[in-house]
Structure formats: C-alpha cells, structure tokens
Write a structure and sequence with these properties.
The radius of gyration is 24 Å and the shape is globular. Helix content is 44%, strand content 19%. The longest helix is centred in the middle third of the chain and has 23 residues. It folds into three domains: 109 residues; 116 residues, Jelly Rolls, CATH 2.60.120.10; 121 residues, Sandwich (Jelly Rolls), CATH 2.60.120.
Length: 403
C-alpha cells in the first residue's frame, strides 16, 4: 500500500482530505504511519476525539465519524481496548449508529482475547489536555510529542508556552460565576479542567470544556459581556488580562487567527439571534449555519459593491455601518444584524444600489450557491429574505410576481 501520510506537517489536513474516501484498512495504516513519523498516538487520540466532538456539534458527520475512527485506531495501536471501546460507545451515542462503527465494533471483539489493556503504570503519564498543561507549568518546554499543528490552538508548542507564561491559572468551585451578562469586559478565559455553562437572555446556551475559550467577544467588540458564564463543576481556568490578551493578539499570528475566527462565529450567533432571520425552530442549531458564510472585513469608505454590478451574494452585517447609495446619493444606512444584497439574489437582477462602508465594518458573505443550499436547509431563512426583498423593492416584487 502506498504511503498515506506524505509528511509530518499538517497531519490533520492530510487526514481530513481523505475522510470521504478512505477505507477502514487505510485508516489503520494511516495510524501506523503517524506512529512511524514520530507522533505520540495517545495524544493524537485525545485530540482526534475532541475534533470529532467539534464537527459533530457543527453537523459535519463525515469528519465527526472520521476523527472518532482515527481516535479508536490510535488506541488500538497502543493495545488500549478499553479506551477504544469507550470512544466507540461515545461516538455511537453522539453521532449515531453507522456501518463503520459496527465494523470497528466487530474488529474489537476479535482483538479482545489476545490484547489485554495496558496497566496504568505502563502508560505515558501525559494523557490529556489537562495533563499536558499541568506538565508544561513545571517544564521549560512542552513535550515534542504534542502536535505542532493541532486545531485546538493551545496544543501548538510555541503558542502553548506563550499562553501559559502570560496566563494566571485559577480554580473555581461549582456554581462560581466568572462574569454576568452586562458586566464590563475584563479578561479572556481558557478552560483547563472542568465544565463551564453559558446562558444569556437571548436564549443561547453553550457548554465549554477542556481546551475551549471564551470572553473574546466583549474584548474585541469593546462591548459589555453578552452572556453569563457559570462553573458547572470544579474548574481550573487560565485567565488572561486584557493587556496580555492584546499582547498575544499583536505578537502571535496564530493566536490572533484562531481567536478572530471564534469571534466571528460567536458574533454571528448573537446577531442571528437578534435578527431572527433563521426562525425559532433553527435557533438551537444556529452555530451550524456559520459554515455557509465567509467573513469580509471592509475598511471605512471602501465599496462592497457598486450599483449595476452582477448580484452574486448577500451579506449579513456583524459590526459597523454601511451607506446604501443610488446615483451617488445616500438613501439608507444599515448596521449590525441587517442583510444587504438580497434584492439581486431574490429577483436575479444587477445590484440596485451601491454599498459603501461608513465605518470599519465586519460582514459575512453568503454566495449564490451557498444561499440556495441554506434556503433549502432553513425555509424560515428563505421566507425572511424574500419578505425583506419585497419590502425594499416593491416595484420589482410586482414585476417579477414572486410568490
């Protein structure tokens, strides 16, 4: 069999690229090659399961299944049958029953008599996100076997060291409130151990566990806290002051990239909830719709599009203000939570106006193909966009006779 892993770099990209076509036998071979390239399989398993959970919550079943299988085979290669079965049971419960899982379950049954689990004393002490972080506090460097390109940003070797040096590790009892909705922004938080619940007046509910972070929306948006964060269990939280947070954003490109992506996602959730474009039934799954959009940063006085241009996308404003102009005269101003560009898509006509940024503006773009896909998935969104287009362009509505 030809080599599946072309290099030690970007292992997750190489794995993800093959999830849709790779067989179970090839996935097993992938694990062996990862081991031969010097990767620590137990850390790979921990990370892979966390990625599976992330993609499961985002609705990407192919990646969720692929990562869970990869985690299982990492454990099997280490002869850790109990851990492999634990991941398999978790995957079946969270993702659902799939043919791949049943095949692996049968495989595990054939291995049970000849491969008893390793004893705790035989296992490498670094077993989880929490233990990696605690280990790094007592060492001058992070172990080399921790992946350098893991998506959970704290596992990047240099980034982990940078954050741990600046952060303040604090412990909180169950029921402790880290901050309340409406509080002034004060810090950025990373969960080292435990579970933290988010609740807000808009109805959004989330849970943060090991490796996840929060607090960036208020810090980056310069707004009051948008939710209340409560420790469900005993928690260890890494806290970064506003100054240290800003320093890392300014000096570490990867930290900035990952935090900004999260900020855009969470800002989208907040704006989408307030605008109600997606309807009440879709609110519980609002985070799944972010994948249909692409962030666009528009500096003040820059044009998003010009009157008469082809209509190929609509935009949701997350932050900032834009001017709507016809014949170079402003006819309206739009802000956070408002859609623009919908008239051209609904009626298949060129742009009926120009859009110019009045301030630095952050928008989300949904191109024509994504728009059609999203409308099929969420009929409430399609109806809301059509209604908005009718109100803004009643003449076109009458001409096109759109139902």
């Amino acid at each position: 069999m030809r080599a599946l892993l072309s290099s030690k770099e970007n292992i997750w990209k190489q794995i993800e690229a093959r999830f849709a076509e790779i067989s179970i036998a090839e996935l097993q071979a992938f694990v062996v090659e990862a081991r031969d390239h010097g990767f620590h399989l137990r850390n790979l398993a921990v990370l892979s399961q966390s990625f599976s959970d992330l993609h499961c919550r985002q609705g990407d079943t192919v990646k969720a299944i692929g990562y869970s299988l990869f985690a299982i085979f990492c454990h099997l290669e280490c002869k850790e049958l109990s851990e492999a079965k634990s991941v398999l049971n978790w995957a079946t419960r969270c993702i659902g029953r799939h043919e791949e899982f049943e095949s692996v379950r049968n495989l595990i049954r054939t291995l049970e008599p000849s491969h008893p689990p390793l004893s705790r004393s035989e296992k490498t002490p670094i077993r989880s996100f929490r233990e990696v972080l605690e280990f790094s506090q007592s060492q001058s460097h992070v172990p080399e076997n921790v992946l350098s390109d893991a998506k959970a940003f704290l596992f990047h070797q240099e980034l982990l060291n940078s954050v741990m040096k600046k952060g303040n590790l604090r412990e909180f009892a169950p029921g402790s409130i880290l901050f309340r909705e409406g509080d002034l922004p004060g810090a950025f938080y990373i969960v080292i151990d435990g579970i933290v619940d988010l609740v807000c007046s808009q109805g959004i509910k989330k849970t943060f566990s090991i490796g996840e972070f929060f607090g960036e929306v208020s810090l980056l948006g310069h707004i009051r806290r948008t939710a209340t964060l409560i420790c469900r269990t005993h928690c260890k939280i890494l806290e970064l002051s506003t100054k240290d947070f800003d320093d890392l954003l300014r000096t570490n490109d990867e930290f900035e990239d990952r935090v900004l992506r999260s900020y855009e996602n969470r800002l989208f959730e907040t704006v989408a909830m307030e605008s109600n474009f997606f309807g009440q039934k879709a609110i519980a799954e609002i985070d799944k719709f972010f994948r249909f959009f692409r962030p666009v940063h528009l500096p003040a006085r820059a044009a998003l599009f010009e009157e008469g241009q082809e209509s190929n996308a609509l935009f949701l404003i997350l932050k900032g203000l834009v001017d709507i102009q016809q014949n170079r005269r402003r006819i309206a101003k739009r802000g956070p939570g408002e859609l623009i560009g919908e008239i051209g898509l609904v009626y298949s006509v060129p742009r009926t106006a120009s859009v110019i940024a009045a301030t630095d503006t952050l928008l989300l773009e949904c191109n024509h193909s994504r728009f059609k896909e999203l409308c099929q998935l969420v009929p409430e969104f399609a109806a809301a966009v059509r209604d908005l287009a009718r109100k803004r362009a009643p003449t076109l509505s009458h001409q096109k006779n759109v139902q």
